[in-house]
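Annual report, structural modelling task.

Input specification for the 2-acetamido-2-deoxy-beta-D-glucopyranose complex:
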Amino acid sequence: MRFSQLGAFATALAVLPELSLAKGSGIPSLKFTESPGAGFPLQDVQTVVVDSRFAQAKYEEGLSLIPPTLAEFAATFAEDLHAIAGSKVSVVEGSKASPQSIFLTLDDDTAKYVDAAGRKTAEGYTLDTGRSGITIKGASPLGVWWGTRTVLQQGILSADKFVVPAGTAVDAPGWETRGMALDGARHFYPKEFMIELCSYMSFFKQNTFQLHLSDNQIVNPFTMDTYARFRWWSDSESVAGLNKYRNESYTREDFDEIQTKCAARGVTILPEIEAPGHALPIVQWKPQIAYEGNLELLNLTHPDTLPTLKTIWAEFLPWFHTKVVSIGADEYGGPSDEYKIFVNALNEFIVKESGKSIRIWGTFPPDGSEHEVSTDVSIQHWSTYFDDAYNQYIKNGYSVVNSYDTFYVVLKYGAYGRKINIDTTFNGNPEGGPWYPNIFSTGNSSMNAPKDEPLIQGAIQPLWNDHGPTTSVYSEAFWAWREGIPAMADKQWGGDLTAEQFADFFPKLVGSVPAQNLARVIPSAGATIFDYDLTTEASEAVKDLSGNSNNAETNCESTGSSLSITPDCSFITPLLSKGRDYTLSLTLKVDEVADATKTTLISGTDSVLMLTPNITMFSAGVYFRLNTTIPLKEWVDLEIKAVGEQTFASFKSESGKTADKAEFLTAGVTGYPHMYPMAFEAPIHQVTGWTGELRALTLTNDG
Ligand SMILES: *[C@@H]1O[C@H](CO)[C@@H](O)[C@H](O)[C@H]1NC(C)=O
Ligand SMILES: *[C@@H]1O[C@H](CO)[C@@H](O)[C@H](O)[C@H]1NC(C)=O
Ligand SMILES: *[C@@H]1O[C@H](CO)[C@@H](O)[C@H](O)[C@H]1NC(C)=O
Ligand SMILES: *[C@@H]1O[C@H](CO)[C@@H](O)[C@H](O)[C@H]1NC(C)=O
Ligand SMILES: *[C@@H]1O[C@H](CO)[C@@H](O)[C@H](O)[C@H]1NC(C)=O
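The model returned the following structure:
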């Protein structure tokens, strides 16, 4: 058995010194056999050679309907090599490895790549490294892609920078479904954010990103005005009125872009349209199908209900480039037999319409009643309160994806975590040892399946926004997952990292994940990122005194001792946004605001600092206001500080008015006055929109 061998391997290694563990491993962990001799420095790569026999090969048997070719994966890999090691790499086709190349090919012998249940998996690969180059042989192009992630990770982790150690690894995932689920219904996220998250997930070999894009905020009681959103935007008559929020939606083109860019990195988008619970967006569209007494549920015996759902799915099924979609079907409070009949009817419709299969959240497990959900429907288990996934679903022939709520993140509400509980990933088996997708309960072993149970498809960890958009900004979803994604990814793959190894590798890797800058890091020579002194006669080009050459431009006039700001001119830095931690300092005098309730002081791509008239951060479409404001017509030193999960404003004016670390808090939800910290990015791109003077603007990396 593959896993008991791995276990023994880990125990044997555990007595060796830390350093030798790093060699050839990564996140997820890797079984690596070192060979004598020098490794291969990634800076030396000149070409990525794609085996011409397989250049156009695609992995068609997976979840994605738009899998990239081997040549396309190679092109993306070459971009990453350039971004990480600075190597200028060309992609060519050929029949064998050439010196200083990385050769990508497919393996004839695929029997050695097996999953946790001992079945063949197409996502396995073999990596061979020597002084003159690297060969990655995959069971499929997707297997090769995961091999490229290993090469990058080994280069980054190498003590000798970017040298991939000489040796061989044969690697394959234990489970075919590995990923995350984001509640983008009760909080909007821009498509760029989703795409960057895919890059992040892919670096740790996750392959599935579930997007829950129809739901309503949790309040009591629900009203027809409760925040509820359906995020896809179609101009089709059949769904006219279903979505009324054009600026926080995805058009077909947007959704194609998300799906295509994620697929390019081996990640499939798995969309979820939730019903017959959490269905207020649908009820707001068709009020007659509400369940009497609870507006977020659908009345499944109403003659319009099933046709409404069929209309929605018929419109959007062609948009989805995946073989599995989720109909949600979570937490339904109506009769279970009506629910089961509904799920089966929608299943039949979706299969017939599209050939896709469906997934539901574990809700009414089989109970011997006349109607049961078809075993063609896969189950997403989350709570032992709603089901016993092993005894009730798996033993009755259902496939299960494990979304165990011990790893839930609910952004700033309730008992669930604010971050993924990573201690549990390393210690979650009640019998001892780490959590794996076969563990449905950390407390009761009788609920857990054997590791080689073939009906376990894998695991997907969700993040929810029960209390809607006013409790977080986009990036807080990333920060809640930043460590959790790689920690879960190790176990979803079947890796055996210890908490100590993870703590060693993670900080070394996290700053180098390609094709994303979710943490909004700005490279800087020292602690000061920019420093503009505007007290001397300024020209159009304003020199950055930090040493980073982040020189700014302005078309505002100088007064001789300050820059004169008006809504008709601007001061523009070459930077857009800065993530935690930071201190942004402005020395300014605001003489006049055009709109006392809505004036921009400085804006960036993730946030805007405003006077409304209170000091306000506008971010993710929401105004987060302090209970204080700066005085007008006098000089003020204003400082915005981000420290971890918190953001503060302080100021001091010429006449002695002050605020000391006033903290920005969640904007609140009616009926749930919980106040939590807010973490904003610094707005650092453009100063304009007010009338007055600016003397200095600086940004440092310290909070
Ligand atoms: C569901 O709709 C049917 C048909 O209109 C109606 O008779 C019934 O009262 C409704 N039930 C609920 C719980 O809303
Ligand atoms: C553990 O799970 C089994 C199987 O579902 C159940 O019968 C038993 O009552 C559970 N034990 C506890 C202490 O909850
Ligand atoms: C979308 O438009 C609404 C209504 O104008 C506005 O309140 C919201 O802030 C906008 N959303 C974003 C992300 O800008
Ligand atoms: C503003 O004051 C109100 C009332 O005292 C308080 O509930 C709220 O938390 C304060 N808001 C902030 C952002 O401090
Ligand atoms: C603005 O601040 C004042 C205190 O200066 C506070 O009473 C008021 O509630 C705040 N307004 C908003 C919209 O937060």
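Residues 177-510 form a domain with the TIM Barrel fold (CATH 3.20.20.80).
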